[in-house]
Design a protein that fits this description.
- By secondary structure, the protein is an alpha+beta fold.
- The protein is built from 21 helices and 43 strands.
- A hairpin with a 5-residue loop joins strand 16 and strand 17.
- This is Diacylglycerol kinase.
- It is found in: Membrane.
Length: 961
């Protein structure tokens, strides 16, 4: 293969080292995606990154080689890597080969895929999701596309030429990570650079409205991505026999040799001997030897030293002048420098190991050089400046020369600082002192790793963080309902006085959570790591560093969507959704409820005047979010944001009534879910307060459920669970009043219905891992119902144990074993106990008329008939104020949270708390995913969706989808 790249090569600006090659199997051009035709399929391939191109496309290549891609980034952003996984039908963004057969990882935020052995060469160009700059006017903000090459969604069309631009044969085509626009490599240079976030713009939280304090805390710790951070080594590098990555021709053979039998290995070695070739391990510095991470090259045994040196540089994606480097023999006693005329045969061999060399920088022969200084967040037009340095140049001199180049003549050096930024496996920053010497830093880095030396940058920054001094930490998992002084003392004891916070508040007493604020970012980072490793009362503390939102930077007409995902709900599909939403939207607007609940997200959005919420979970999760909204609404600019639902639970009755479906199955495109939220209409949902007044008699700790009020009471026979705490409100109870208050959104059950719910709840508490699918959960309900049919009847003659008053009138109860009080016309996974409309004394119900419906069931068989749609429940009453007296111990449940209640008075009355919900547009057709792009062409109007304004939003038929 003859190398054709040179100074006059038009593609050399993109860093490729092209060589001509004849391909002996079907091969596709990475520029246009077409096959290389002909019996002798000739084309060009990059000897570093394996980029294949037609002869006709050779002069129009725009995709940069991975050897220089890192140097093209102005502000590097680290990726949030996933766990290793076998990805199908994807290509590596570094070596461009298929991922199917090897373990690979991907970024949780953007569509960047790499082999685990290629991770060292991944380009730190993840989306920059927080770019707020103080003093910059919204009208001056121009957001540009963030292009990612290859791995396009199927059936992607080019936004410019309208032709198909995806392929399943190679890494080809481009996609904007913000708006989803797709295009050909040759077309994307002609697309206007400004990006408007596509069809998701109405709910997109723009990056220029978010600021993150300038700390070294990684992004995954801020957004709650749970990734194990281990310095894992590839099995091939641990054995010290197989490269952790290989850009040479024999990479696949090397991997096969590690797992092949002795006969195959001998055969491969014989073939190499016949070709008179040698496989050499190349270490790029002392660090790579310590970590036992190397690359391999395959050379002819008679190769000249310069040829071996160039191959070693290419293997580590190093593009600097080869004259500045040399090779040494790793296994020689004194690390002898390789010399012509026969460098390869003179290499020392260890038994069972390949020869190995060190790639070294000629630091003794280079007392001066050049370094690049990047302006970082400073608002200048230049991407970087090049400053000549020598062994006597200090960081202060470097800052002074950079300020002159960038035109900051009026500023003094004392207002700025210089940081060393490394792009090796992420982005790490170190602030330099003024007397450190940049050229000595470069040379020391070259001894440890030539690759790191290549990727190291100097960044100029203002000394004072432009985003302000306040850094907010959310702290959870402390005991609930303590005083502010107690919380301060606990945190001070854990942190030490030297790391004490500047301010505390707000405090969410019921949840044992709070926000603490620091004015010193370094102190805040120390506190973050201390608290993250701390325990209190045998519980690990939960700590999150919170981003800041600037409301003035959100465009008019945009209602940012705050997304909560309960990864434990129902079928446990939340992990897929949370990953999809973080890629489609800004990851800072997506919160995992397993990481602090709704409170961190609501605190971050507290200053936004108009936003929406999407809750991904079951009815219990929705109640939890609404309850937290009740607690924080008075301190927020938007006290009652409209809430939409992605039903992940088992019952999902509220979601059914609001037309969000019986349950998310994973089959619908998450993009379509977000489009439905944009189109949804706002409606009001009645909410009700259920107050339990126990009879005046000695407390029986086995029967009373604990309220989460300020007065602490004994637990019920059921241990108080987190779900119950989430649903309870703070009661205004006095020392004489043991009343407990609940907020009801869906229904309140007494008797057989609650008894079944209690059995299911106890079974799930005993074996939570078994309840991981809707089908299993419903089958458990059926089994428990069958047992109730043949076993003793706990709720027999319930009508004799309950007295019911509706709107001040005593209601005579029929012979029933259960009573259900309905706010919505969906119960038990979509059944309608009230039944179809008929002529009687009751009015047509809905969930905003201020009325409740009371129905009765005669037993388990009747419950089954209601759920099957064969019968309706017995209509008993309808009213806005209900009073019930329980004469004995009876199972009860409020919105699916059950317990056994001792004799008491129960009052159900209209709550002063408000809830605004989002209802999916009726008659909305399921979209076929034929156009995966999120972009709407300029001037195109979306067709209005059909709706039937005449139908009641609470029509019983709405539960059918």
């Amino acid at each position: 293969m003859a190398s054709v790249a040179g100074p006059t090569d038009p593609t050399a600006a993109h860093g490729h080292s092209f060589g001509k090659k004849t391909f002996h199997k079907p091969t596709y051009c990475h520029h246009c995606g077409d096959m290389l035709w002909g019996l002798i399929q000739q084309g060009f391939i990059c000897e570093v990154c394996n980029f294949v191109v037609h002869d006709r496309c050779f002069k129009t290549v725009v995709s940069p080689c991975s050897s220089i891609a890192a140097s093209l980034i102005k502000n590097p952003v680290a990726h949030c890597w996933s766990e290793p996984f076998h990805h199908k039908r994807k290509f590596c963004n570094v070596c461009r080969k298929r991922l199917d057969d090897n373990v690979s990882i991907h970024c949780e935020i953007c569509d960047y895929f790499v082999h685990t052995e290629c991770q060292d060469f991944a380009v730190a160009d993840c989306r920059e999701n927080a770019t707020y700059l103080p003093g910059k006017n919204l009208a001056c903000v121009r957001h540009e596309h963030h292009w990612r090459e290859g791995n396009l969604p199927s059936n992607s069309k080019c936004a410019l030429c309208k032709k198909t631009c995806w392929t399943s044969e190679c890494l080809s085509g481009y996609r904007c990570e913000w708006c989803g626009m797709t295009c050909h490599a040759s077309c994307h240079m002609n697309i206007p650079p400004e990006c408007t976030f596509g069809i998701l713009e109405p709910i997109y939280l723009p990056p220029h409205a978010i600021s993150i304090p300038r700390t070294e805390v990684p992004m995954e710790a801020i957004i709650g991505v749970q990734v194990r951070r281990k310095e894992t080594l590839s099995p091939r590098s641990i054995s010290e026999e197989f490269s952790s990555g290989d850009t040479g021709r024999y990479k696949d053979e090397e991997f096969a040799q590690a797992h092949a039998g002795g006969r195959d290995r001998d055969k491969q070695n014989k073939e190499r001997d016949d070709r008179d070739e040698e496989v050499i391990k190349v270490y790029d510095g002392n660090n790579s030897l310590r970590r036992r991470i190397f690359r391999t090259i395959v050379v002819q045994r008679q190769s000249q030293l310069r040829h071996v040196l160039i191959l070693a540089l290419r293997a580590h994606h190093i593009t600097k002048d080869p004259n500045n480097f040399y090779l040494t023999d790793l296994y020689s006693p004194d690390e002898t420098q390789l010399q012509d005329p026969t460098p390869v045969p003179n290499l020392h061999h260890k038994e069972g190991k390949r020869p190995a060399v060190f790639l070294r920088f000629r630091d003794r022969d280079n007392d001066k050089g050049e370094v690049r200084v990047f302006p970082g967040k400073l608002q200048v037009s230049q991407a970087f400046c090049t400053v000549p340095v020598d062994s006597s140049t200090t960081v202060a001199d470097l800052i002074r020369e950079s300020l002159k180049f960038f035109g900051f003549h009026e500023y003094g050096c004392e207002d700025f600082r210089c940081s060393e930024i490394l792009l090796d496996r992420g982005v790490t920053e170190r602030v330099l002192s003024w007397n450190e010497r940049p050229w000595e830093i470069m040379k020391q880095l070259g001894r440890d790793s030539i690759r790191q030396m290549e990727l190291m940058r100097f960044y100029l920054q203002l000394k004072q963080d432009p985003h302000g001094p306040n850094v907010a930490l959310f702290v959870g998992n402390l005991p609930p309902n303590l005083s502010e002084r107690n919380y301060e003392n606990i945190l001070t004891e854990l942190l030490g006085k030297e790391n004490k916070f500047s301010n505390i508040g707000p405090i969410y007493y019921e949840y044992g959570s709070m926000v603490i604020t620091y004015e010193d970012s370094e102190k805040a980072v120390r506190a973050f790591y201390i608290l993250r490793e701390s325990r209190y009362e045998d519980k690990h503390l939960l700590v999150m560093l919170l981003p800041n939102l600037e409301p003035s930077m959100i465009p008019h007409g945009v209602q940012p969507l705050l997304i909560f995902v309960n990864v434990k709900s129902g079928g446990c599909q939340g992990l897929e959704l949370i990953s999809s939403f973080r890629k489609l939207l800004n990851p800072y607007q997506v919160f995992d409820l397993d990481n602090g609940g709704p409170l961190p997200g609501l605190y971050v959005f507290r200053n936004i005047q108009n936003y929406r919420i999407l809750v991904c979970g079951g009815d219990g999760t929705i109640g939890w979010v609404l309850q937290c909204l009740d607690n924080v609404g008075q301190d927020s600019q938007c006290s009652s944001p409209a809430c939409a639902i992605v039903p992940l639970g088992t019952g999902n009755d509220l979601a059914r009534v609001l037309r969000w479906g019986p349950g998310y199955t994973g089959g619908e495109d998450p993009l379509n879910l977000l489009r439905d939220v944009i189109d949804a209409e706002e409606i009001r949902l009645d909410r009700w307060t259920v107050v339990f007044h126990p009879e005046d008699k000695p407390d029986d700790g086995n029967k009373q459920v604990n309220s989460s009020g300020k007065k602490r009471q004994k637990l019920s026979k059921l241990k108080l669970t987190n779900e119950q705490i989430k649903k309870q409100v703070v009661g205004a109870s006095t020392s004489e009043d043991n009343s407990q208050i609940f907020v009801m959104n869906n229904y309140f059950g007494i008797g057989i219905d609650a008894d079944l719910c209690l059995d299911f709840h106890n079974a799930r508490e005993e074996n939570p891992n078994k309840f991981n699918s809707r089908l299993h959960n419903k089958s458990v309900y059926v089994k428990m119902g069958l047992r109730k049919m043949v076993g003793p009847k706990m709720c027999k003659d319930l009508h004799k144990e309950v007295r019911l008053e509706v709107d001040g009138k005593l209601v005579e109860l029929p012979q029933v074993e259960g009573i259900i009080i309905l706010n919505i016309l969906s119960w038990g996974s979509g059944a309608n106990p009230w039944g179809p409309e008929k002529e009687d004394q009751f009015s047509k119900p809905n969930h905003w008329d201020g009325m409740l419906e009371v129905v009765g069931v005669t037993g388990v068989v009747h419950l089954g008939q209601i759920q099957s749609g064969l019968r309706s429940a017995m209509r008993i009453a309808q009213g806005g104020h209900i009073k019930i007296h329980l004469h004995s111990d009876i199972p009860v449940q409020v919105d699916g949270e059950p317990w056994v209640q001792s004799p008491c008075d129960v009052v159900v009355l209209k709550s002063a708390l408000k809830a605004t919900m989002l209802k999916k547009m009726k008659g909305k057709m399921k979209r076929r995913n034929t156009e995966p792009t999120m972009l709407v062409s300029p001037g195109t109007q979306l067709a209005p969706l059909p709706t039937n304004e005449g139908d009641s939003p609470t029509d019983p038929n709405n539960v059918t989808f």
